[in-house]
Amino acid sequence: MSPLFLFIILLILLFFGAFWGVPWIPTKKEDYERIAKLADLRENVVFYDLGSGTGGVLFYFAKKYRANCVGIEISPLLYLYSKIKSLLQKRVKILYGDFFHHDLSKADVVFIFGHPKIYKKLKEKLVKELKEEAKIIVACWPFENARPICVSKKKFGITYYLYKKTSLMRG
Fold first, then answer.
1. Which helix (H) or strand (E) holds 135?
2. What is the CATH number for 105?
């Protein structure tokens, strides 16, 4: 096989998720604590990352806060990388596939860096499956017709929006 062919295959595998919502853009490490604060993370909180990429957020929260973390990743390459890494961290579980086909009912907190084009379907899934007190944190774009409980803004950085399931039900 030619190097060009292998490079093209690698790019396709890496950006596979772009066809379903947003290409892989890793959450900046400097934002981890902002997300943790919004989530009110502590030991045994069940934290889901929809489109978890390499799992950086998950491994950090599992180690620092002893949270039980679940990542769902659709890109085969990113899934394999994070799945192998998760074998060394008992508080991190990595699932493969489209998060629309996974049960989210055990989540205390759901984090997503998605695109608004999937929000209508995502909102319906979250309202249907999450516990009443569950928190939802979205990056960049707020849900339409739903008021966030809290917004974390940073100059020249990503904005994060915190919702509870009940605030999504009203919108």
1. strand 135-139
2. 3.40.50.150
Q: Which two tokens stand for residue 58?
A: 């998950």
How far apart CA 139 and CA 163 sit, in angstroms, is: 12
Q: Which domain holds residue 39?
A: 3-170
Amino acid symbol at 35 = I
| DSSP one-letter code for 110 | E
Task: Compute the distance between CA of residue 107 and CA of residue 77 in angstroms, rounded to an integer.
Answer: 25
Measured CA distances, 158 to 25, 60, 122, 144 (Å): 12, 19, 20, 18
- The pTM assigned to this predicted structure is 0.88
**pLDDT tens column, 111-170:** 999 888 889 999 999 999 999 999 999 999 999 989 999 999 988 899 999 999 988 877
> How far apart are alpha carbons 123 and 142 in whole angstroms?
11
Q: For residues 140 and 118, give the distance between their C-alpha atoms in angstroms, rounded to a whole number.
A: 14
C-alpha 165: how far from chain center = 16
How many structural domains compose the chain? 1
Pair 55, 94: CB distance under 8 Å? yes
Q: Which of 64, 47, 166 is nearest to 112 (CA)?
A: 47
d(CA 115, CA 122): 10
pLDDT digits (tens, 9 = 90+) for 48-59: 999 999 999 999
